[in-house]
Design goal:
Shape: globular
Structural class: mainly alpha
Strand content: under 5%
Number of strands: 0
Helix content: over 70%
């Protein structure tokens, strides 16, 4: 019997290629409720870190993280790092003390604000001297013109105009030099004072993330400055430097960060869980109610593995004390060393499970409505049951996320280029430092190259500074939206990957999600009991 022809009507890509579900992450990530929660989370994290920087006495020297990064590959790296940082700190301290003394106060009484006002005072004196010099030269030129004979007025007028023009040019150059010198002096003062620990850490991490996006765009996955190399740096340079050399500061910041992350990250994960499974959207209030109710679960899920590693490490360290017992100590430690190896094996499994399965913890709680122990159990089991499948899904999410991020960034760049061009088209004024006013209020995306930037307030007047500050606020709100998209995409894609891994390992359907039901909803869902009307039975008549 001849084979019957088969006509393919369509392909269910969701079933044939389940990883294509990750491509839904972009549409879900740009939902306003998730972006709002992400922006609030970023603002609170920034404020908590900035507050710690403001009250913390210790500051990082300029280039401290670069010094740490360069010292890691050298022999006796700890000693070299300490020596280089101390040398840089000594030079910066000497320069800063010189600036404090220049304020006219003793270095014990002077503060950074005194340095700022001294710089402003010197700037204003230079600008005033330049304007007075111009006024004097202009007055002299006009007096010479007035005293000139009538028959030589034409030549005198030409000489006067040339002298005034030269005086104006000299004045403008002197004013610009005064403002530039003030800006440089303030920059040097901040560099000598040192940067906040949080500011240093954030600049390092954000720079690394931008490098990852650029490497994905250029297709550089391996080698130096490739995606893999930059990912390793993201998790090893900044965090290890923070916990190794500034542990108290960053433990406090980590607790604040994890609290904010648990509430708002848990809420975003909850919205994503319902959105992906049921294609339904819950409100921000409902999501926050869920995350606050599960706060301890979200907070402790990534912390419990750290306590396990720390506890086992402490036990091994205490056992190592036996080595100090003369003669018998090394023998006991050597005989029981297999216990240390067993503990090291467990710690390695926990560390790898936390590193590889962390992205699945929050989605577990958001999807299942469970606790931190279930989040740890499922994330570890999915990782070790299908490691290559999880790595493949994660790689797809990284590439797709980087492409989406670049698309939004290019969209913002075009938006800002058009805005900068047309908004400044008819601005002809000059800033106080004689530069074009619009370029001083906002240099534009092409010049700055970044959405986040700093304003040179030392080159602007009072009204100009206020206007530049408002533009700075709007620009940083736009930058926050870009960062909010990255956060939202992270949680959405992690939730999609959790659904895929759960189906792969546990054979659970993708639309299976825990749904809460309030008392009001439950009462509305109950059927109303209907009481039949009372009837009176008439007994049959007897025959």
């Amino acid at each position: 019997m001849a084979d019957q022809p088969v006509t393919v009507r369509g392909i269910d890509f969701k079933t044939a290629f389940p990883f294509t579900m990750i491509f839904r992450s972009f549409r879900a990530a740009v939902h306003p409720s998730k972006l709002i929660l992400a922006v609030i989370a970023m603002l609170l994290i920034y404020l908590s870190g900035t507050l710690l920087d403001a009250i913390w006495p210790e500051r990082a020297v300029r280039g401290e993280l670069a010094i740490y990064s360069d010292s890691r590959s050298e022999k006796d790296s700890t000693r070299l790092y300490s020596e280089r940082v101390e040398a840089a700190r000594k030079d910066a301290r000497a320069e800063y003390e010189r600036m404090l003394v220049a304020t006219g106060k003793s270095k014990n009484d002077a503060r950074f604000g005194d340095i700022k006002w001294t710089i402003l005072k010197e700037r204003d004196e230079r600008v005033k001297a330049a304007r007075e010099s111009f006024a004097s030269r202009e007055k002299s030129a006009r007096e010479d013109y007035d005293k000139s004979p009538e028959d030589k007025k034409a030549d005198a007028r030409k000489t006067r105009d040339e002298t005034v023009a030269a005086a104006e040019s000299s004045r403008d150059k002197a004013i610009l030099a005064g403002y530039d010198r003030a800006s440089e002096a303030y920059f040097d003062a901040r560099r000598a004072r040192g940067n906040g620990l949080f500011e240093t850490f954030v600049n390092q991490q954000v720079g690394t993330l931008n490098g990852i996006v650029n490497s994905v765009r250029e297709g550089r996955w391996l080698g130096r400055d490739g995606v893999i190399d930059l990912l390793v740096r993201f998790f090893t340079i900044g965090p290890v430097w923070a916990l190794r050399y500034h542990p108290i500061f960053f433990i406090l910041f980590f607790l604040a960060f994890l609290s904010i992350w648990a509430i708002f990250g848990g809420a975003i994960s909850r919205i994503a869980a319902v959105h992906i499974a049921r294609d339904e959207k819950i409100s921000i209030r409902q999501a926050l109610r869920f995350s606050t109710a599960k706060f301890l679960s979200f907070f402790s899920a990534p912390v419990i593995p750290l306590f396990i590693v720390g506890g086992l490490g402490l036990v091994v360290a205490i056992g190592g004390l036996l080595t100090n017992i003369p003669f018998i100590g090394p023998i006991i430690v050597g005989a029981l060393f297999f216990l240390a190896l067993a503990a090291g094996f467990v710690m390695t499994l926990v560390v790898l499970g936390l590193a590889g399965g962390f992205n699945l913890m929050y989605p577990t709680i958001a999807v299942e409505g469970s606790d931190s122990f279930d989040a740890i159990s499922r994330s570890f089991s999915y990782l070790y049951a299908r490691p290559w499948r999880l790595a493949f899904y994660s790689a797809i999410a990284v590439v797709y996320g980087a492409l989406c991020y670049m698309f939004i960034r290019y969209f913002f760049d075009l938006l800002l280029m058009l805005t900068h061009f047309f908004a400044g088209m008819l601005v002809f004024g000059r800033a106080d430092n004689t530069d074009p006013l619009w370029s001083m209020l906002w240099a534009g995306p092409v010049v700055s190259g970044r959405l986040a930037y700093s304003v040179d307030y030392f080159s602007l007047g009072m009204g100009q500074s206020i206007g530049a500050f408002f533009i700075w606020c709007w620009m940083h709100l736009l930058a926050a939206l870009l960062g909010a998209f990255a956060i939202s995409f992270y949680f959405v894609s992690s939730t999609v990957i959790y659904y895929l891994m759960r189906k792969e390992v546990d054979a659970t359907e993708l639309d299976d999600v825990y749904l809460e039901q309030s008392d009001e909803d439950f009462s509305e869902a109950l059927p109303t009991a209907t009481v039949p009307p009372a009837t009176t039975e008439v007994p049959p008549a007897s025959a």
